[in-house]
Every structure is written in structure tokens, then in C-alpha cells.
């Protein structure tokens, strides 16, 4: 790809799409469709949307008095706390939900990609984040009373949120892949952690023409077929004893678990951890044990990682499987921004509808921020070969969000100019700090896909 790409054209495309999504006409139509706007009111749909999203700093912790003051200072309208409290209703929740769903289903992609030729169509990372709630919300049952869980499937190559669902806090992760299985396309690579492991789910990915890379529990039963056609159990600890630190071994056509009907046969890669990696794992297990959680299964074969995949050796070598799986940390960084930057989990006691306005409003903010950040990050990598910190870039975009209010409300300035400023700021202050012996996501993708490029 020509490095002298027209950055202005890409930013112009981004700004035009934002203008379309946040136009007064579109917002008013959603307000009418959801029943939020039935008559003329002081708090117009645009004001309410901005209050819950771009002006939503610490929204979940502010009092009604503070929110009324914010409306007055920003839009010069006077409203009582009771009047505003009445606006937080089911119609308001549906209004914000409609905006959020529009952003999720029609995300900005741009015309540029990190890697033009690769084995996989999309690189899908699935994980969840949960937090407790202060109120007694019947719809959100958590382990400690009320709680919420957000399931996110993130596509790494384009930075899109493929699937984002809100569940009650007690919902099991292992059931969620069934909800999104229809979205899997041929060539998709699905990275799955232990919590999502299910033989049926992995078989479904394979049957749809997709690829899976899943970590297995350390006490999993693995079998290989001998010359007599009988399945023999693999002694993982025996294999681990023969490996040097950092060394990997692969086994083909391994049956996962003792299940004989519709079995999962996969390539299994066993990687011996370095001393540092094993020490970190042990420390993590010690913390879990102190909290009263069982660690017996995880303690077994603690010196190795075991992964199952249907990726072939020609696509990704055994030495790179653990590395490729490790890019799951990208979604952990996203979750870190949700809580540390956007404070989605910090909620005071309030009625359910007001909390849900905080929830969907915050999701709109973080979705918009991560989309803009990834867009600029991709441009900088292609244009400058510059690796940008995910956390820093999202933080920079977040600080620029209030500036969008004056463009959308007062029509002062332009979205193009704001997008250019964000791009410039990320270029100056968003560079990723390289730690010694630590590979970045770009390093890993370059290693994993280098065979195809050659």
C-alpha cells in the first residue's frame, strides 16, 4: 500500500459518518420512534443525548441537582430535579439504546487495514466484564445482590465491536457463544478463554468454516489414537517434564475429553512456561485461593499452557500459537479503559431507568472513543509505521469529546477539524512505550502472519 495515503480523505470520511449519525434529524426520529419525544419539552432529545453521553463525565455519581445545573450551564434551560427525574423513564432508555445499537451495528471501518493478506477473515476476541450495582434491580441479579455483566466480542483487525450484550451478573460465560454463533463467517478466527470453553461451541465454529484457538484447562483429559485404533490418554505432566522453558510441542488429531459421540479432534499445542510466567500464574492462583476460590484444577500441570486449535501448521507454527493467543490482552485493555477512564462501574443508588441511561450513555461514549482512537491508530501505523498505545489514544479521544458538544449544539467549528486535532494529539503523545522483551500486538501479528506474506 502506498504510504502517502490521503489522511485528509480518511478523516473527512470519518467526520461525515459522525455527522450523519449525530444529526438532529436522525436523533429526533429515534426519539419519536421510541416514544421519548411526544410533545415539545424543555429537555430536547439532543440535549438529553448529550447529557448522558458526551457530557456524561461521572454521570453515574452525580446528583439530580448537578445534572440540572449542567443542563442549565450548557443549554441555558431551567428544569427541576423532579422534572428531570421523570425524564429518566423506559422511553428514555429505549432512545439511548437505539443510538447505541446504531453505533454497534454500523461501525466506522475506513478503507485501510493493518494487514492486506492474511489467513483469517476476522480476528475475534471474546471476553466479559462485570460489576456490582448498589440498587435492588430485579433484572440485574449478581453474585453479591445486584450486578451486571457485559459480553464483548472485539474484532482486532478493524477495531470493531462485533457483539456487545448486557446480561445479569450471574449469567454463565459458557452459554454466550450460542447467542452469537450465527455471526461466525468462513475464515473467522475466534480466540476463546477457559470460561467460554465448550466442545459444542468449538465444533460449531469449525462447521461454519471458522477457526478456533482456545485455551484448555490444565486437568483436561486428552487422547490420541494408537495403531490398534484405541484411544490412549495423554500424560501431560510427562510431556511437560521433557520440555525446556519456552519450548512448545504439538500433537495432531487429539480428542478433547472422553466424549466419544461427536468428538472434537484438534491440534493441541503444549507450551512450557518461562520461570517468570509460572511465578505470575502461581501468584494469581494464590490470590484466588485467599478469596476462597478453588484452584485445584489450575494447580495441575501449572508449568504449561495447553491450547486446542484447528489452525494448521502451515498457517501458524507451534512456537507462535501461545503468542497469537496472548493478543487477547487487547480486550483487557479495553475493559480497563471502561472502568478507569469512563467509570462505567461507579454508580450511586438511583432508580433503574436512570441507571440504564447511565449505562447506555457510557457505552455510547466508550464506543465512540474506541472507534475514533482505533481509526487514528490505524492511520498512524500505515502512514508513519508508528505503534500507538490503545490506552493513551482512547484517553486522548475522551478528553476531546466535550468539544463535540459545541459542534453538534452550537455549530461552532467542524468535526473534521476536531478529528484532525485528535489525530495530531495521538501522534504527538500516544506512542506506545516498548518494554524490554515485551512484544506488541503488531509484533505478534507480524510473526503469526509472516508465512503468508513471504
Give a structural overview.
The protein is of the alpha+beta class. Among the domains are: 7-107 and 349-403, no CATH class; 212-308, no CATH class. Helix content is 46%, strand content 16%. It contains 18 helices and eleven strands. Strands 1, 2, 3, 4, 5, 6, 7, 8, 9, 10 and 11 form an eleven-stranded mixed beta sheet that branches. The protein is globular and about 80 Å long. It starts with 6 loop residues before the first helix and ends with a helix.
Describe the SSE topology.
Layout: H1 7-21, H2 24-33, H3 45-52, H4 64-75, H5 81-87, H6 90-105, E1 123-133, E2 141-142, E3 145-155, E4 160-168, H7 176-180, E5 189-192, H8 199-207, E6 211-215, E7 222-225, E8 231-233, H9 236-242, E9 248-256, E10 265-272, H10 275-290, H11 296-299, E11 304-309, H12 318-326, H13 329-340, H14 352-384, H15 390-410, H16 415-429, H17 441-448, H18 450-453
Parallel strand pairs: 1-5, 5-6
Antiparallel strand pairs: 1-3, 2-3, 3-4, 6-11, 7-8, 7-9, 9-10, 10-11
Domain Transposase IS4-like: 120-365
Pfam families: DDE_Tnp_1
Family: Belongs to the transposase 11 family.
Q: Helical amount among residues, as a percent range?
A: 40-55%
Instruction: Outline the biggest β-sheet.
Output: 11 strands, mixed
Q: Tell me the number of strands.
A: 11
What portion of the residues fall into strands of 2 or more residues? Answer: 15-25%
Poorly predicted tracts of residues: none
- The backbone outline, from C-alpha atoms, is globular
Number of helices: 18
Radius of gyration: 24 Å
Taking the alpha carbons of the first and last residues, their distance comes to: 16 Å
What is the element string, with H for helices and E for strands?
Answer: HHHHHHEEEEHEHEEEHEEHHEHHHHHHH
The residue-averaged pLDDT reads 86
Domain Transposase IS4-like: 120-365
InterPro entries: RNaseH-like_sf, Transpos_IS4, Transposase_11
Pfam families: DDE_Tnp_1
Keywords: DNA recombination, DNA-binding, Transposition
Amino acid at each position: 500500500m502506498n504510504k502517502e495515503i490521503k489522511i485528509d480523505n480518511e478523516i473527512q470520511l470519518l467526520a461525515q459518518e459522525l455527522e450523519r449519525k449525530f444529526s438532529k434529524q436522525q436523533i429526533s426520529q429515534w426519539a419519536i420512534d421510541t416514544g421519548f419525544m411526544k410533545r415539545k419539552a424543555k429537555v430536547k432529545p439532543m440535549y438529553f443525548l448529550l447529557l448522558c453521553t458526551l457530557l456524561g463525565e461521572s454521570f453515574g455519581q452525580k446528583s439530580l441537582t448537578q445534572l440540572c445545573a449542567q443542563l442549565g450551564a450548557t443549554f441555558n434551560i431551567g428544569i427541576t430535579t423532579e422534572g428531570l427525574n421523570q425524564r429518566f423513564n423506559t422511553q428514555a432508555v429505549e432512545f439511548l439504546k437505539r443510538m447505541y445499537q446504531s453505533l454497534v451495528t454500523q461501525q466506522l471501518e475506513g478503507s485501510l487495514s493493518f494487514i492486506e493478506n492474511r489467513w483469517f477473515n476476522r480476528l475475534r476476541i471474546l471476553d466479559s466484564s462485570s460489576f456490582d450495582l448498589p440498587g435492588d434491580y430485579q433484572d440485574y441479579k449478581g453474585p453479591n445482590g445486584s450486578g451486571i455483566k457485559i459480553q464483548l466480542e472485539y474484532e482486532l483487525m478493524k477495531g470493531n465491536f462485533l457483539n456487545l450484550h448486557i446480561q445479569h451478573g450471574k449469567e454463565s460465560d459458557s452459554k454466550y457463544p450460542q447467542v452469537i454463533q450465527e455471526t461466525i463467517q468462513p475464515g473467522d478466527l475466534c480466540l476463546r478463554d477457559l470460561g467460554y470453553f465448550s466442545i459444542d461451541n468449538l465444533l460449531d465454529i469449525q462447521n461454519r468454516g471458522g477457526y478456533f484457538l482456545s485455551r484448555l484447562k490444565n486437568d483436561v483429559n486428552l487422547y490420541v489414537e494408537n495403531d490398534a485404533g484405541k484411544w490412549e490418554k495423554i500424560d501431560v505432566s510427562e510431556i511437560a517434564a521433557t520440555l525446556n522453558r519456552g519450548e512448545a510441542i504439538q500433537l495432531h488429531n487429539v480428542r478433547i475429553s472422553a466424549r466419544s459421540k461427536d468428538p472434537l479432534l484438534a491440534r493441541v499445542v503444549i507450551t512450557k512456561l518461562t520461570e517468570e510466567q509460572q511465578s505470575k500464574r502461581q501468584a494469581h492462583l494464590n490470590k484466588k485461593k485467599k478469596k476462597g476460590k478453588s484452584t485445584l484444577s489450575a494447580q495441575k500441570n501449572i508449568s504449561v499452557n495447553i491450547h486446542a486449535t484447528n489452525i494448521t501448521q502451515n498457517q501458524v507454527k507451534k512456537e507462535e500459537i501461545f503468542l497469537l493467543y496472548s493478543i487477547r490482552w487487547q480486550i483487557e485493555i479495553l475493559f480497563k479503559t471502561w472502568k478507569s477512564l469512563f467509570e462505567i462501574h461507579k454508580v450511586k443508588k438511583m432508580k433503574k431507568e436512570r441507571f440504564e441511561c447511565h449505562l447506555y450513555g457510557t457505552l455510547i461514549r466508550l464506543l465512540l472513543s474506541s472507534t475514533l482512537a482505533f481509526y487514528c491508530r490505524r492511520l498512524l501505523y500505515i502512514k508513519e509505521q508508528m505503534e500507538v498505545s490503545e490506552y493513551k489514544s482512547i484517553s486522548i479521544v475522551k478528553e476531546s469529546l466535550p468539544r463535540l458538544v459545541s459542534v453538534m449544539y452550537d455549530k461552532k467549528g467542524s468535526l473534521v477539524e476536531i478529528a484532525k486535532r485528535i489525530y495530531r494529539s495521538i501522534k504527538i503523545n500516544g506512542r506506545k512505550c516498548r518494554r524490554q522483551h515485551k512484544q506488541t500486538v503488531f509484533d505478534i501479528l507480524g510473526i503469526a502472519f509472516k508465512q503468508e506474506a513471504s
